[in-house]
């Protein structure tokens, strides 16, 4: 915990400072949600095919970045909202303008009570 997953259109891969974003998001998650630094784990998943509305996908006019942050239960709605807003602000600074419409979103959710893990 936290489990962070970032899905993004590969159209912005060269414009997305993933390392810098992950580092700053981990720092924010520690500061805002009282996570342990060593517990922050982030996976980036590029998407080769993004469809937006009725646009022809070949037009490459839109890109999507969606961040999901999974936390153990117990954070207040205010804490989750602050983390969400902070993550959106960080995205602004780590995805350069490429001339396409960028649709960025963040969701903070609670991990299910069944969540378990192991480290090797």
From TrEMBL:
It comes from Streptomyces monashensis. GO terms for molecular function: 5-carboxymethyl-2-hydroxymuconate delta-isomerase activity. Keywords: Isomerase. Coiled coil: none annotated. PANTHER family: 4-HYDROXYPHENYLACETATE CATABOLISM PROTEIN. This is Isomerase.
């Amino acid at each position: 915990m936290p489990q962070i997953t970032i899905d993004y259109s590969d159209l912005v891969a060269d414009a997305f400072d993933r390392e810098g974003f992950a580092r700053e998001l981990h720092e924010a998650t520690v500061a805002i949600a009282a996570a342990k630094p060593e517990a922050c784990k982030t996976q980036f998943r590029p998407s080769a095919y993004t469809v937006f509305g009725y646009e022809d996908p070949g037009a490459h006019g839109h890109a999507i970045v969606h961040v999901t942050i999974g936390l153990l239960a117990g954070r207040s709605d205010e804490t989750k909202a602050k983390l969400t807003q902070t993550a959106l602000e960080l995205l602004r600074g780590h995805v350069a303008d490429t001339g396409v419409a960028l649709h960025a979103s963040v969701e903070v959710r609670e991990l299910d009570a069944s969540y378990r893990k192991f480290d090797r």
